[in-house]
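Hey team,

Sharing the Glycosyltransferase family 2 protein run so nobody has to redo it. Sequence (271 residues) first:
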Amino acid sequence: MHLAGTKNLELLSIILSWNRSELLEKTIRSYLETVSVPHRLVVVDNASDPTTIECIKSLQDQYKFKVKFLRKNVGGNAFNIVLDEEDVDLFKFVHFSENDVEYLPGWDLDLISKFASFPELGQLSPFSPYPEKGKGEVWTPKRARKVCRENKTVYMARTVGTTCVVRKEIIQNGLRWRTHRRGFLLPKDRHFSIQIKKLGWRVAWNDRYVATNWGHNIKSFQENPDYYVQNYNSKKVKIKGFQKRLRKEGYQLIEKDDGSYDIKPMDKKNE
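Structure output:
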């Protein structure tokens, strides 16, 4: 449940919402049903469709968290709007979340404990650098260096993704998110990590998944292929990057006569 008090708050969590109501609901519910430290949750919505707006309002009535509805999609800058309105001094850590994550029990305590063991750590992902292929995750392993200390392990890396926990000092130092301006207005997660390192901190992946990354899952891809095509066209790699990613895992992106897309296993493409 949302904790509204102002003393001894551990975590300011900001969930970035933009359409995809089913995944958003999974993200919000799993967060609120698993978070165990004193916290404040703010859901910031980037001018989503009516279905998503109603989903947020229904969940807000049930769980009583804070919501900010924006009149237009400002991409990753939505994080900054919340950061500038909230008193970051009240918290020890700031947690940024995309809208396609399922949080698992103990995720918050696991991540927060790593910052005590690794005082040089500024940013930590809830994912490991090794994809959960058994759950259908379609992602490539990331280059990272395993570091163990006090019976805890992280994987130091160059950059990590948008969903992460950072020390409040980084935000107090003025760091804010930037946004890709082409197509979908996606947060520039790479830039964010690089800036954290320029401030003298390290960034890392966790040693295990404490949240399921449905945004990289073949099930999500197949349920909404057109969304992911547009998503990749917003990135530097474009649609070819998405096709390459799928082929590596044995899937093919198929454009249909009406211009929409389908994703099927490569061995069934001629059926």
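DSSP finds nine helices and 13 strands in the chain.

Ping me if you want the raw files.
A.
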